[in-house]
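Please fill in the sequence for the structure shown.

STRUCTURE ENCODING:
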């Protein structure tokens, strides 16, 4: 597959989302799928004592997570199970080193070109900053041997999110061949189930500011499930 074809496939996956729910071993909590705009304000994704929402089971929107957080009004969720994606290239778009995407929060229905994506690994507890460094480093490899990236201007900071020690990084991922650069931000924290990384993922750097409020909402409202 050439770079042009791969790029087209990547855009299709970005727009369409992918797959059914994550494996059971990664999601012991009850899911609360987000169902789009609500007059009551933001929806919630994750686990809730109130139980599941009324979204139809198996519709691909339910995200079982070890955390819960609010999503911006109009945004929608899509559960991702990388193990069910047979195409190696497409699976690689949702896997970064030991971290697999388990939920993609899509801004397109709200007119925003980008995502807030939740990655998960059961590699065990570790230093949140070190886990972010692993994510950022392996993200430079990309899903294609023909496409390589480099990290520029990575800035890390330690913080507390949902009462748990966490870390955050902002960096530019530059495509070596085309010199194109996209800005990303992500935070990491450990949960009883494993490590969670939440990523602000715009289509392009110019979309970063539009996605930022949804990412900040997730960061400020996130709580870790027991």
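FILLED IN BY: designer on duty
SEQUENCE:
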């Amino acid at each position: 597959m050439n770079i042009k074809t791969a790029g087209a496939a990547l855009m299709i996956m970005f727009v369409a989302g992918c797959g059914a729910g994550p494996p059971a071993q990664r999601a012991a909590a009850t899911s609360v799928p987000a169902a789009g705009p609500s007059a009551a304000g933001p929806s919630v994704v994750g686990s809730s004592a109130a139980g599941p929402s009324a979204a139809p089971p198996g519709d691909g929107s339910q995200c079982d997570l070890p955390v819960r957080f609010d999503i911006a009004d109009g945004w929608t969720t899509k559960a991702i199970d990388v193990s069910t994606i047979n195409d190696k290239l497409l699976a690689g778009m949702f896997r970064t080193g030991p971290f697999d995407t388990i939920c993609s929060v899509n801004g397109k229905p709200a007119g925003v070109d980008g995502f807030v994506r939740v990655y998960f690994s059961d590699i065990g507890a570790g230093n949140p900053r070190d886990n972010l460094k692993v994510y950022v480093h392996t993200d430079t490899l990309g899903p294609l041997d023909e496409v390589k990236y480099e990290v520029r201007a990575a800035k890390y900071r330690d913080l507390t999110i949902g009462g748990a020690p966490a870390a955050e990084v902002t960096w530019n991922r530059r495509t070596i061949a085309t010199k194109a650069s996209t800005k990303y931000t992500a935070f990491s924290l450990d949960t009883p189930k494993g490590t969670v990384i939440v990523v602000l993922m715009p289509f392009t750097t110019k979309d970063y500011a539009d996605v930022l409020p949804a990412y900040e909402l997730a960061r400020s409202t996130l709580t870790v499930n027991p």
